[in-house]
Amino acid sequence: MDKISLSGMQFYGYHGVFPEENKLGQRYRVDAELYMDLQASGQSDRLEDTVNYATIVDTIRGIVEGKPYQLIEAVAEHIARAVLAEYDQVQALTVRVIKPNPPFDIHFDGVSVEIYRKREQ
C-alpha cells in the first residue's frame, strides 16, 4: 500500500486530566501516515485522483484545537475516525499524537501515543 506522510504538524490544544492543562493548554505535535493507492494520481498528476492533504490538515487541526479531551489516546482516535469517515481514498492510517510538555516533574521529550486504524471491509 502506498503512503502519504504528514509529519510534525503543530497545534495548540487544551487536552489533559488536570484543570490547569484545560485552562492553559499547550502545543501538540501530530504525525499521520495515510495508506492508500497512489498509482492513479501518480499517473494522472491530478489532485482529483488523490486526497488533498491540506484539507486533511484542517480536519486534524479542528480536532486538536477543538473540544478538549482528557487523554491523547482520545485525540488520536477522533483523528483516525474523522479521516476515515471523510476521505474515502484513505484505506488505513497511523496517527501519532505527541504531548511534548506533560505536567510531570521531569525533563524529557514528551509522551506520545500511536494508533493504527483501517477501513472496515
From TrEMBL:
Instruction: Tell me the route in metabolism or biology where this protein functions.
Output: Cofactor biosynthesis; tetrahydrofolate biosynthesis; 2-amino-4-hydroxy-6-hydroxymethyl-7,8-dihydropteridine diphosphate from 7,8-dihydroneopterin triphosphate: step 3/4
This protein's record includes keyword Ligase? no
Q: Which InterPro entries match?
A: Dihydroneopterin_aldolase, FolB_dom, GTP-CH-I_C/QueF
Q: Indicate the segments forming the Dihydroneopterin aldolase/epimerase domain, all copies.
A: 4-117
**Gene Ontology MF terms in the entry:** dihydroneopterin aldolase activity
Tell me, in a sentence or two, what this protein's role is. Answer: Catalyzes the conversion of 7,8-dihydroneopterin to 6-hydroxymethyl-7,8-dihydropterin.
This chain's protein is named 7,8-dihydroneopterin aldolase
